[in-house]
Here is the input.
Amino acid sequence: MLTLNYIIRRLATAFAIVIGILVLTYILIYLSPGNPAYTWAGRPRGPKAEEAIKMAENELGLNKPLYIQIYIHVNRFFSGDWGLSLRFKQPIIVVITRNLIASLELLIISFSIAVPIGIFLGVISALYRGYLIDKILYLISSLFISFPRFWIAIIFSVLLQSLGINIFGRIAPDYTLSINYVTGSYIIDSLINGRIDIFIDVLIRIIPPSLIVALYPTALTIRVIRFSLSEKLHEEYVKQAISFGLPRNKIVYKYALRGIIPAVSQLQGITFAYSIIDAATVENIFNREGIGSAIVKAIPYNDYPLIIGLLAVTGILFIIINTISDIIQVVSDPRVRI
Amino acid sequence: MKLRYIVLTIVLILIILAISYAALQKKVETTPITSPTETPLPTSKERIVVYAYRDTITGIDPSIEFDTGIVILSNVYEPLLYYDPIKNEFKPALAISWNKVNETAWIFNLRKNVKFHDGTYLTSEAVRFSILRSKLIYEEKGIGPGWIWNCLEDIFIVNETSILFKLKYPVPIPLIVSSAYGAYIYSPNLLRYANASDMIDEKIRLWFEAGNDVGSGPYKIELYKPESEVVLRKFEDWWGWDIVNNSKAPEIVVIKIVEEPASQELGLLDGSIHIATNVAKANINRLLNQGYKIINQTTFHNYILMFNAKRWPTNITDFRKAVLYAVPWNKVIEFAFQGFAKEASGLIPYGYPGYVENLRYEYNVTKAKEILEKLNISNTKLELVITSGYEEEERFASLLKSSLNQLGIDVEIVALPWEQVKEKGVAVWRNPDDAPHMIINDWWPTYPTPYDYLYILHSADIEWNWSGYTNPEYDELIDTAFQLEGIDYDKAIEIYNKAQKVVFDDAIAISIADSIQPYIYDPDRVLIRDEALNPLYMFVIFFQYVEVVS
Amino acid sequence: MNSYVKRYSYRVKSPIRVFLGLLRFNRKFLIGFTIVLTISILSVIGLISPPYYLEGWGIVTEDAMKRQGLAPCIPFNCPSIYHLFGTDDMGRDLLSRILVGAHLALIQMVSVIITSIALGILMGVIAGYSNIYIEKIFTYVMELFIIIPSMVLAAAFITIIGRGMQSVILALILTWSPWYARLTYILVRQLRELDFIRICEAMGFPRTYIMFRHIVPNVAPLIFVEAITDSSSVLVEITSINFLIGAASLTSIDLPDWGMIVGYGVRYIRTFWWISFFPGLFIAVTAFGLILLGDGLSEYISPWLKRRWRLWF
Here is the structure.
């Protein structure tokens, strides 16, 4: 039941999880070896080195007990000051925003490809259960889950390269300075600037990676819908609808599918978290920027503020997605009680 | 009733997002900075060159940067002179002539009508400001290449275009002034732009790292994203465009950071990268057959293998010698570097001042086995740290591992990113057991003096001395030679040779090979003139000498 | 009394008969099982005596240097019969490396799955059967850990704990056990409503007794079958993480883990395509076999899914 009570409780849980992620990441960073003050001060040597390190420690607040550090950290986080990246000496927000928007583009396009196709194919697979089409779809979905996405990405990129299609990076270098960057997302910016040729170029470069990232969600959706829809189609109300003489599509899409929306949306919420790994491999191979590759590159460098910021942003993103999926669950199925 | 609540939730979420967006907008501007350069929108069909470099840019503060930032700094800023070590001649940049007044004083005459990127003119004050900042920051905070100015006592301004260097002891100042790091000149107006109070204020550094520049070079920084790409735009008012006579110089230069060799190759084939530096050597033949061209630059870039002098068993000199005897040196060039290197001797590369011939170990497995039997060491495990993505180091490490395997020693090869390799190396001073037994450091020059390559084993250098080697005799040798360079150069070289022999006999560090750096480019897009590459400025392509063909 | 029970009791099939029956009649199970069996045998071979032992573990021998970059042995174009999959750029035989890598992959996968099942069932059962505060804390912690992506956690552990397979395995355990914990939690909540548990509660049995004697045996088979299907995703995840941060996650870059070999071979993809191709193929085939195995088992457990019915509308 979508009551105000439920909404507030859900938002409070989400908020608590954000704080939990912040505390967790801070503890992880606290446990790691190395002295961030040393890197922050620019690795000084010589007579004034001790002083410089002490000053850096004061700045970063490293000489206070742990719970006070966590408290300060959470406070600063919510007031918007995420600090400077140790490695780039630029504000964290700037670094994160440009990576986040790139990843978000990729993930949104992938999921908007994956979910409709997955639902459509899953419904076919459930309706024609046991027939040849079902077997083929089952085979395809199993293959998509078991193929390692990095392997497919490599083969795909070699294939596209030999066909002469340009897929390197996010945008052709000739166009790098041609448009005003308003949002940071090349797709939206090229449309705002009215440059259709850049728009098409960016689109060509984003479709193959998003196809690869979309493999896993599609396959999972097909499997889940195949499993749960076949159960649903045996229930009494479907038989009643059939006996009323309602058209088939209406029964399936309007009545039976409603019942499995909770399971599907919860699945999407969790798959979104998993897809970051796929997105990171794809970004690596096609040389794009993004959150996945930023994390992979930031952690070996011990750039603590950046890591904390990236983890927090990832956490917030997934919490938003999960909360939305939970709300969808509650809206569609009044029996669900979170 | 349901619809109402859905709408309410969506409105709530939108309000929260809007508030947080507005709050974040305010916090982004931490310090009010003004940038003196404008960023107009380029028109169509401008000449663009894309240069793929393989490591992240570590910083672009011209007085503090001591690592990969040189790729950008050499195009945006200029030193007083450039030095060409092959022809052994100086090329005037911001200074057109120089005279030695006496042993400890030199006068430099500056070029007239040189503009900085913000429109102001070059004055002696700018030179004094830049050089003193580099020196002061090193003395105060211990970071950066300011040690090259140790010999400098002060700089006196004679008039608007002449400047006097007062030295503490005689040194060949023109060499130092053309150094690859720490000798760049920029405008003192940045005190105003960065709201800084004096020249060593931290705000200046933050202003630089934010992507601003105020140099005098042929290009200025347009977009600075140090982990993915840096975009440079042609500076029309550069003094040298008439002299260089290159009407096809690129107007926009994109320096893309591409760490994976596979991606560099993909970009090259794609047309997205025009000049590539790090392609898998096995693929080069195929690329050449497809019409790409290659320039093999003989460089002073070498790979130095250092042993940990404080950890067992590499703290035993004979053990180190045994390891070195076990490396098949004749195979190193062809297997590890696949032909893109020259044989090395001692620590200093061929052609550099201080090079000593015949400081090589021979490949003699029986000798190695004898030494190990005598020391009664067998079945140990050694740790070797290399930089990840450097194909040459990986292949050399495999070579080392397989030869040591025959002696019963197991080698663990650890590949880390460059910054982590540095951390591991410096750990030898805090806790020798944290640091690896062997580590490979690739080194390129700052300015032509043997001290540049030899001070990495000095016991006071805790930044680059990754072996923990403390030998007061060696320290004294190279320190006296450094001071002697200006007075009696030949004697200084003699002392340097002696120092290298000490290191050789101690088997603490040795250069594996002098690398030859291949630059693969697309001849249908660019033409690279000879002057664009200079081995003293490693990985720098001077884009004013590059012509865009298509 | 005895005859009454005898008439209404089923003849419980022994596991061996179940297994043989599955093999005979369930095609998915058959194919999946053969694939997994082959890979296991190959991994044992790889552990004990691959064709080129030293090269399999990453050492570049003298002979290897002479045969760098040989192509694989396809019919009509076979450079060397001794190297079925060719050699990599340093000359090491690829087949031996893949065999040695097989046992690494299986060890990692099995340790992750078994530990996370154990932890997950434990946590889920405890949470499902406790008072409301522990439940709330439990759901909170579970959701927290499900949300964190495993790669991030793996990279963080590598920084903290150090290199080695244990960091990756630990990170994956921490990411997967909440998933099983959640599943068990839901199942336990459903089971609690059932009569036989209510009777036990009413009879006053201690909670631990009910948990471990009644609930766990009912929950474990379902979770176990689900885990086998998930193990293919786990395998792909482990190899993906090794591919991305391979150089830092293993003790030595020579270690022939499948993901590592692929990651290393990417830069040679246009000349030595087989270095990246074959390990990936092995990963795909192993994961596919595991999925088929898991699906076959779940069809056995819930047989109504196999029902083939004709849609009459």
Summary: The radius of gyration of chain C is 24 Å. Residues 268 and 275 of chain C are 8 Å apart (CA to CA). Chain C has a mean pLDDT of 81. Residues 22-56+75-302 of chain C form a domain with the MetI-like fold fold (CATH 1.10.3720.10).
